[in-house]
Amino acid sequence: MIGTILQTSFRSLRRDRGAFVMSFILPIGFFTIFGFVFGSMRGSSTPRVTVLVVDEDNSDASKSLVRGLLREPSLDAMTHPRVTKENPAPADYTAATAEAAVRSGDAPAALIIPAGFGAHPIAFGPNSEAGSTQAKFRILHDSSDPVAAQVVAGMLEKTVMISMPATMAAVGSQYFDREIGGLTPKQRQQMDQGLAALRKRQDQQDAQPSAATGGSATASPAADSGGMVAVDIQDVVGEKKKSPMISYYAAGVGVMFLLFTASAAGGSLLDESESGALDRVLSARVTMTTLLLGKLTYSALLAFAQLTLMFLWAALVFHLDFFTHIPGFLVMTAITSFAVASFGMLLASVTRTRAQLGAFSTLIILTMSALGGSMFPKFLMSDAMLKVGYFTFNSWAISGYQKIFWRDEPISSLGPEIAVLVGSGVVLFVLARWFARKWEYV
Question: Are the C-beta atoms of 60 and 199 separated by less than 8 Å?
Fold first, then answer.
């Protein structure tokens, strides 16, 4: 009897495509996505971080440090914007342009090498002479990425130690000389010879091209004024906001559930088709285009109400600054609701039963949410995964809401998001109308 029950159960599972997909295909798909995102990380490593480097000192020591930062595999360090056809020779970043780039979201952090770094580059303890006048590095930080500043600070101290051996040795010898009461002339001569040889090897190393790309390395603790290098981390985006990630997760979670709601709303077409109500509606001089537009409008209004409630709750409980950003919120919510409603219409049009719709929509929506940033922050993703995420509604919606609520940018900055979401919504609705021909009488 048990064998018969097993045989019947497996036969039913094979016939139920929705259950089969949910049991086998969906877990493998999610494992693959999470494997690509987190599989290359180890407990002692950090993700590669983009940092803009500004050299205000222009000394030999600071130039050597910049070369070391450019070689550091944990950092995507840049001293100037990327070369483009429109700007083949971009100027180096200044403190002002680097801060503007961080504010606009081009990079999560910028490192300012201060004037005077070459004179007193490092300190071996608070009582050293170098430490008493040591110039302080500045890290300009976008706190919506809580990892970047700590990684940059740790990699800065590591790079100072590795890329400036001659400077380290020279300062160390001065500190050692003072602490032991002075070196003998012969000891000082040997020290000078060793430093000269070390500088020669460092010059040869600096002459090699910076070929390091990708990879990861262990991060040191964030440096402070009592360490070998003095660092001042400054939040330049959202410095007065209480919760850096609230607008991110309100948009990410909200859009994910909007997709499920739109799919369920579109599924009413399948229910009406199975019950025969759809035939009666179409025979009453209601065209399929009109019917789909009505369903689309209902789904979009429902999505709009859901997102509004989500952000109002974020404002009430998590102190999101909602009411000063209402115009931008209305624009983003309207275009996002339209896009996800069109997506729901398409899902209903390409499937034949509720079971198919449930399995197919769950697979697609959860995959889009994982790739688009709804399930974990984008700063944990690789560049390749971020590019894939641009094919999802989630990524564009999160980007738009971040511009409005986190960066306080005007509605005019939403041009890319508006173009992509509205354009996608129109294309998806046209496709939904084309697939919906199966319900029309010829």
Answer: no
Sign, Cα dihedral of 212, 213, 219, 225: positive
Q: What is the pTM of this model?
A: 0.71
CB distance 126 to 102 below 8 Å: no
Q: State the DSSP code for 142.
A: E
Give the pLDDT score at 62: 87
**pLDDT per residue as tens digits for the range 258-278:** 899 888 888 888 888 888 888
Give the whole-angstrom CA distance, residue 70 versus residue 323.
43
Distance CA(33)–CA(37), nearest Å, equals 6
Q: How far apart are CA 299 and CA 133, in angstroms?
A: 64
**Could you tell me which of 426, 69, 402, 85 has the C-alpha nearest to residue 251?**
402
3-state secondary structure of 124: coil
> Cα dist. 16→12, 193, 266, 289, 352 in Å?
6, 80, 21, 32, 13
Q: What is the 3-state secondary structure (H, E, C) of 37-58?
A: HHCCCCCCCCCCEEEEEEECCC
Strand pairing class (109-113; 49-55): parallel
Instruction: Count how many residues are written for the chain.
Output: 442
In terms of Cβ atoms closer than 10 Å to its own Cβ (0-12, 13-18, 19+), residue 380 is middle
Helix, strand, or coil here: 107?
coil
Q: Which two tokens stand for residue 305?
A: 């109400």
Residue-wise burial string across 91-115, b where 16 or more C-beta atoms lie within 10 A, e elsewhere: eebeeebbbebbbebbbbbbbbbbe
